[in-house]
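Tokens for chain A. Residues wanted.
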């Protein structure tokens, strides 16, 4: 049994995070080593192996016993785990020069939780690691140690705890209604299904509550944004595939996400906020594919998640390199860097072409699957909007980002390509984008369904190339209107920025009532012990930390004491 437990790919990662706190000076070696070991464990697992581990637990709604499948193998889980580990290794190479061992340990906890989510076989296990992801990512944002990161992290935490509570309510409702917590496809319009869907969509970055992505991700360190972009939203995509594949409303939610991300990215001036808005846009393509629900569409969604994690990581690495070298993050503050940072420029261009679905890149393969799936299902309007979305992506991420950062008017900045390991990480990521684009059968072998899709037909290549070229022409014709000024883009985050103090005040007044509930609910915890914890939290003067602890405890109480 002990041997089997260690076959879980998340175990080496969690152990690595603990080792970092002990061997602080070896954090880089431990980080990469634990991910490499996890990768080895992953490939040691085959679908012929019975790797479903069961923990007995009193059923939430009866006196019977229910199993917690904390490892349930699937081809989809394998695909997501593989790309999580790959981008984890590449991101760790990129962050070698980041001198913050706590951040590196937290990132491993974040990755390990994401791996645990995609191999979860029941909603309870899923929810536990889902919340650990939210907490770990919050502390990753805070680890940047700036006033902006502290504020953004607090808003991020509140949004995700809100989504987690909605998700928990849905899971509890599902348990009462069906007495079955197996992670599975849910159909129907039951209220608890809607709660689960809303909880997942919030983490996926669906508007109007999507502003947390551009609000928080850019406030992390130059390297942590690479990790933040890879796991939270894509884990939500994984969950939506498993639980809500074929739910038609997702088609229209996804289309809205696509257009929303394009518009705000075109208006944005901050380098990383541009790319953060494009996360919303790209996840929109995946959500559309999930809503279509055919095998081709779901293969396309899984492919696009895989490709997106790599090329978006590459784009954020190139943006992080610029910020690391120049200490500037506004498009209006940089320009003409192609002469000074040639490796970064080339890698950024490859990432930009990939996200724009240019032929011979990974994005061309995955987006084509989703678009063709919509056409095959008779959804001509959806197909047309996906084409429009592809053109829009080329405008903001394919051209705007590299043009204003690397080719616009020279600002006479002293710069050079980043250090060795950062370059290696970018080069390897760029190579993967091209490799998948040129040899798509490499990706086909790990897709959830059998793939026979042929992307490189003459008509498809020519039409996509024409579309992107005309988009490029439109960009340069409209260049004077797209020139950015020193300004900010107002989004829905304006609301919770302005009312954040009010919300925190209300929460602080509510803590007393919640405290009384917890004191009465947990007989095993003495008042003295609780008081000590309470006094410690008050001394920290950190309302967000108090909220985190209290809500975690309250959630566990609800889960374990529903009877």
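Reply:
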């Amino acid at each position: 049994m002990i041997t089997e437990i260690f076959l879980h790919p998340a175990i080496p990662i969690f152990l690595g995070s603990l080792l970092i706190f002990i061997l602080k000076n070896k954090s880089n070696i431990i980080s990469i080593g634990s991910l490499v070991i996890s990768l080895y464990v992953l490939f040691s697992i085959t679908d012929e192996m019975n790797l479903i581990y069961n923990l007995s637990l009193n059923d939430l709604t009866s006196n019977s016993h229910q199993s917690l499948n904390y490892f349930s193998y699937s081809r989809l889980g394998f695909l997501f785990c593989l790309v999580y580990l790959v981008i984890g290794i590449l991101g760790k190479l990129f962050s070698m020069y980041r001198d913050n061992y706590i951040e590196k340990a937290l990132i491993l906890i974040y990755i390990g939780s994401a791996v645990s989510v995609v191999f979860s076989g029941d909603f309870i296990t899923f929810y536990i690691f889902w919340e650990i992801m939210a907490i770990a990512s919050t502390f990753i944002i805070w680890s940047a140690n700036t006033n902006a990161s502290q504020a953004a992290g607090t808003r991020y935490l509140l949004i995700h705890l809100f989504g987690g509570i909605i998700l928990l309510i849905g899971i509890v409702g599902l348990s009462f209604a069906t007495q079955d917590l197996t992670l599975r496809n849910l159909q129907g319009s039951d209220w608890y299904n809607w709660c689960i869907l809303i909880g997942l969509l919030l983490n996926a970055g669906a508007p109007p509550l999507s502003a947390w992505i551009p609000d928080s991700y850019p406030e992390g360190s130059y390297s942590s944004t690479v990790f933040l972009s890879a796991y939270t939203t894509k884990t939500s995509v994984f969950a939506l595939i498993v639980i809500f594949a074929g739910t038609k409303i997702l088609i229209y939610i996804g289309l809205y996400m696509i257009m929303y991300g394009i518009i705000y990215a075109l208006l944005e001036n901050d380098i990383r906020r541009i790319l953060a808005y494009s996360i919303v846009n790209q996840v929109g393509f995946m959500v559309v594919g999930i809503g279509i629900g055919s095998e081709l569409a779901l293969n396309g969604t899984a492919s696009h998640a895989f490709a997106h994690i790599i090329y978006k990581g590459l784009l954020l690495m190139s943006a992080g390199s610029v910020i690391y070298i120049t200490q500037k993050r506004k498009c209006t503050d940089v320009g003409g860097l192609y002469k000074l940072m040639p490796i970064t420029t080339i890698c950024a261009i490859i990432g930009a072409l990939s996200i724009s679905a240019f032929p011979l890149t990974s994005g061309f393969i995955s987006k084509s699957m989703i678009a063709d799936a919509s056409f095959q299902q008779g959804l001509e309007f959806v197909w047309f909007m996906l084409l429009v979305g592809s053109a829009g992506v080329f405008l903001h991420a394919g051209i705007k980002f590299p043009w204003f950062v690397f080719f616009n008017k020279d600002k006479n900045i002293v710069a050079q390509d980043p250090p060795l390991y950062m370059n290696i990480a970018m080069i390897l990521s760029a190579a993967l984008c091209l490799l998948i684009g040129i040899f798509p059968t490499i990706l086909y072998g790990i897709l959830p369904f059998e793939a026979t899709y042929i992307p490189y037909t003459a008509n498809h290549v020519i039409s996509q190339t024409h579309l992107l070229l005309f988009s490029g022409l439109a960009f340069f014709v409209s260049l004077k209107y797209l020139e950015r000024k020193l300004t900010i883009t107002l989004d829905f985050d304006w609301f919770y920025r302005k009312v954040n103090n009010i919300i925190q005040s209300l929460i602080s007044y509510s803590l007393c009532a919640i405290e009384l509930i917890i004191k009465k609910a947990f007989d095993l915890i003495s008042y003295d012990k609780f008081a000590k914890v309470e006094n410690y939290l008050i001394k920290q003067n950190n309302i967000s930390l108090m909220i985190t602890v209290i809500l975690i405890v309250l959630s566990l109480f609800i889960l374990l004491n529903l009877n």
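The chain has three domains: 1-243, 245-498, 509-560. Confidence is low (pLDDT under 50) at residues 59-64.
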